[in-house]
Fold this sequence. Notes:
This protein is of the alpha/beta class and 251 residues long. The chain has one domain: Ribonuclease Z/Hydroxyacylglutathione hydrolase-like (Metallo-beta-lactamase, Chain A, 4-Layer Sandwich), CATH 3.60.15. It is built from seven helices and 16 strands. The strands form three sheets. A seven-stranded mixed beta sheet has the order 6-5-4-3-2-1-16. The protein has a seven-stranded mixed beta sheet with strand order 7-8-11-12-13-14-15. The longest helix is centred in the C-terminal third of the chain and has 11 residues, at 190-200. It starts with a strand and ends with a strand. The model has no long low-confidence stretch (mean pLDDT 96).
Amino acid sequence: MDTQLTWYGQSAFKIVTPGGKVLLVDPWLSNPVFKNAKDEIAGLKDVDLILITHGHSDHVGDAVEIGKKTNAKLVATFDLADAMVKHVGYPADQAQADTIGHFGGELTLLDDEVRVAFVRAHHGSGIAADDRMGLRHGGSPGGFVITIRGGPTIYHTGDTDLFSDMALLSRFHKIDVMLVCIGDHFTMGPARAAEAVKLVAPRTAIPMHYATFPILTGTPEAFERELNQRDAKAELRVMRIGETISLGAGH
């Protein structure tokens, strides 16, 4: 079986590995553009890992509900995992050292089927607690490089601006699929996102974090123009909300 990738809108994805393991990244399924969220969440019976890039509510999303229901282990930085346990109620026994890391580190998980490297992003990471005291410290924002045995290597940028150190990723990982924020206002817009793709040099670029709200004005069409202007070699793949695609093997 090929690796399966589903986009739920914003930055929320489901990855199903060739061995049938289920990963959710930034699982805000109940976002305004995914109309089947209630049924989808109810249908998630087996989730192995929930990966959270940073503490903002549009990325933590439905992680606690899904985590409690499925016993999924949390993959996050040490600081963010601590905040999620203390302030939003993620089960502490599902957020232990075996799945918690930090930038520069790489975890080998699920019987060596998945490796997750913690990489930086330029953004914020405050987490919204239930006590109306404002945002709590959620550590530093990041992204993930997810390497799947028998499948591709996927770079999820999280929310970020362009920064030159993105070019270093390709020295350590051959990125097959880059899930790249393009919405502007809170993250890179299409021009800076296209420059990021050129630095990382993935085989395929999939835009995310756009059109969820009117304020996120970046579009795939503008992103495509910017990629072409920069002669970025990546194939552009624009996913529909709720669509599942098959990803081939990696490099």
